[in-house]
Amino acid sequence: MTPGELRRLYFIIKTFLSYGLDELIPRMRITVPLRLWRRTLFWMPNRHKDKLLGERLRLALQELGPVWIKFGQMLSTRRDLFPPAIADQLALLQDRVAPFDGRLAKQQIEKSMGDRPIEEWFDNFNIEPLASASIAQVHTATLKSNGKEVVIKVIRPDILPVIRADMKLIYRLARWVPRLMPDGRRLRPLEVVREYEKTLIDELDLLRESANAIQLRRNFENSPMLYVPEVYSDYCSPTMMVMERIYGIPVNDVAALEANGTDMKLLAERGVQVFFTQVFRDSFFHGDMHPGNIFVSYEHPEDPQYIGIDCGIVGSLNKEDKRYLAENFIAFFNRDYRKVAELHVDSGWVPADTNVEEFEFAIRTVCEPIFEKPLAEISFGHVLLNLFNTARRFNMEVQPQLVLLQKTLLYIEGVGRQLYPQLDLWKTAKPFLESWIKDQVGLPALIRSIKEKAPFWVERMPDLPELFYDSLRQSKQLQQSVDRIANQQQRQNKRQGQSRYLFGMGAILLLSATLLLINRPDWGLSPLWLMGAGAVIWLVGWRRAS
């Protein structure tokens, strides 16, 4: 490790220990060396004994920076894995991260607008941030041009070096995983870290986020399920983004939603529908759907509509991944575990020589207990843990392109659990996926494909005779090239065979001449003539080999 990485590692360890997070180390025999090592670090005592464990964990992650805050945000949705005292504290990381000085934000806005005073573009700019997150914070203002209320999102200053330093250290640790764990290579830790780094770096470019928000808004235009605020792209830059200010109820404020008369069952079902629509219909999904980024409109509580913000992280799947995922989901819903096992083999997610019968039985053992239960009684955390153990047995590799989707699924589960614990996730998702599969492989898909490609075929039809002639000519030229290469290879093989023969003859003559010189010195010059002949034959063989 470099000195800089060692300093950062020391800071991380010191931060965790100064907040007393060593309490999270389970008291087991295998952890005895770790707990003994902790006692040797006597100069790093717990300096926050007056605070509860959940608050200490939140403060430690917040102090370590955006990479760790993002991790805490994901953990905050897993209320089935953590007690409320910890989950409630981690939830504060979603929009209540310590802000930076508003005057710095104002300077950055003015710099983005060509070093002009902020008053030229905005009225009522509030120096106090409306919310602060791990990557950026937002301030409220009013557009001078049309008088509309907006929020201005500003990237935290000097954040990139911190992310680079943490990611460099994480890369270093990821390289050790295959050495420390027997099946560490199967986890593909470097690919997973590289994907995570990409999402973090992408979040630093607010022009990218603006484009993502515009696309997502277009995908759900006039939809009763999801509303995405309007982006004012004329005012956007890589470090600043201006968008419509929205008013809604945070999706995790269940009491406020119920007080507003919200249909909680419909709201939870629409959350699942929004996710599957983004993934399978649009192949463009919001990849950071933690509760801090999701609100519910005050209007029409009987027909609730989500409001989505912060589109810095989006994901997409190719056609093959979408198809395999949809068929996997449907097979799970139908409890067709044989089909699930075969799909995993066909997709290459497990080796081709996998015993499908054993794999099917292992999947059945993990998944069968979760069906016909309400969401409140299903822990996807435990199911994923069991599936991980199954994967280890069958050498299943981690798929980096699905990591973001998996994280989003965890968020959806956490939100659904809070809104309506009795939600039947399977009944909600299955009709959507069956309809999507039918649309992809049925007669409508064939007709749509013909319609899409018909203009291209019509355009290329006059060129078909020429293309056919070119294809025949190229085929003939290819065959001639293959024949020429084959002849050259045949001649080369013949030369190499002759060369090996001459090498052997030369070696035999040289060895024979040497033995004669040693054992029959009375033969005079005959062995020397024999040695010369061997050397000449050897030289001829070498020339033929070259």
From TrEMBL:
Principal place of residence: membrane
Residues forming the catalytic site: D288 (proton acceptor)
Segments traversing the membrane: 501-518, 524-542
Subcellular location: Cell membrane
Keyword tags: ATP-binding, Cell inner membrane, Cell membrane, Kinase, Membrane, Nucleotide-binding, Transferase, Transmembrane, Transmembrane helix, Ubiquinone, Ubiquinone biosynthesis
GO cellular-component term (any): plasma membrane
GO MF terms, alphabetically ordered: ATP binding; protein kinase activity
EC number in record: 2.7.-.-
GO term, biological process aspect, one: regulation of ubiquinone biosynthetic process
Pathway stated in the Swiss-Prot or TrEMBL entry: Cofactor biosynthesis; ubiquinone biosynthesis [regulation]
UniProt xrefs under InterPro entries: ABC1_dom, Kinase-like_dom_sf, UbiB, UbiB_bact, UbiB_kinase
Keyword Disulfide bond annotated: no
Domain ABC1 atypical kinase-like span(s) in chain numbering: 93-344
Keyword Nucleotide-binding: yes
One Pfam family linked to the record: ABC1
Annotated residues for binding of ATP: L130, A131, S132, A133, S134, I135, A136, Q137, V138, K153
Topology class, membrane: Multi-pass membrane protein
HAMAP family documented for this protein: UbiB
Family: Belongs to the protein kinase superfamily. ADCK protein kinase family. Belongs to the ABC1 family. UbiB subfamily.
Function of the protein: Is probably a protein kinase regulator of UbiI activity which is involved in aerobic coenzyme Q (ubiquinone) biosynthesis.
UniProt protein name: Probable protein kinase UbiB
Organism: Siccibacter turicensis
Lineage of origin: Bacteria, Pseudomonadati, Pseudomonadota, Gammaproteobacteria, Enterobacterales
Gene label: ubiB
